[in-house]
Amino acid sequence: MLRFHFTPIDLTRVRIADAPHPLWEIATSLHRFQTRHGRWAYASWHRTAVSALRETGLDGAMRSVLLPLFPRASYFPDFLTPLEGKEGLTAGIDALLATPSAQVAREISRLTRSIGAPSWVHRLSEGRTLREVVRVLRAYYDTVITPYEEALHARLHAERTRRAGALFRSGVEEVLGTLAPTIRWRHPVLEIDAYPDDRDVHLNGRGLLLIPSYFCWNTPVTLADPDLPPVLLYPLHHSTTTSPPAEKAHLHALLGTTRAAILRATAAGATTTEAARRSGVTPTTASHHTTVLRDAGLIASHRHANTVLHTLTPLGAALLKQHAAP
After folding, report:
1. For residue 256, what pLDDT is reported?
2. Which of 77, 234, 238, 273 has its CA 20 to 30 Å from the CA of residue 104?
């Protein structure tokens, strides 16, 4: 069992990631190739991914390079999923490449001791080998996850909206107590059943970042090093098989990619700066698009001091729900 121990200040520092964490999604999507558990929930994605990897010639690199680094086991290296990844794939990869060589060597040694790994992984503390791994990570992401990015964003923003509703109704204890069937809140401890090892993480005022994950199945995941900023990756609920995005009506086909991203960003409320970051544009460009969305009646904007908070109108929420992935 995994246990997070909260102090009163930690309860005020619970956050929910505002965008998918690309490196965690890479990790958990690779786990989907290593088990048939939950395959029904990802059947369409798995079928499409296998075909795409084979067509691009990446299937061999996935087996020889990525699967040994991301085993579906009790441990894989923390440096592969840095916190900076919450800002996007490029930010996460930059942080990964900047990992001190001593940390890389230490975590690779632990991987070898606990799980086993091919001999080449010990060269990861050398820059050239790590850059080659990053090249494969990028290619893998572009091939099997990028086509599903819209679905991932839609699901995550729907999850943030649900969590915001829980917070407004009953406070942070309902947020923590309704994350997943395997997660249980018993004040002041958050318990995760069936975790691969028995661990206690004392937050000691650092708070906890909750990261909803599309490809995480059943068992939540956290970092192995208790001294790193605490995170908990937890699974989104899957009720049906997800169809490939190409077979579905796209929100961006109606609004355009940027405006669709900004509309999703406002699901739990977003300032212009936050909407710009989540949609990958400048604040000036985001301001133009929020004006268009506001004039169309899809969002409402509220000024407070020097910031403007954008939220969905009922019409915007209905549109977002209609085009959300299942």
Report:
1. 83
2. 234
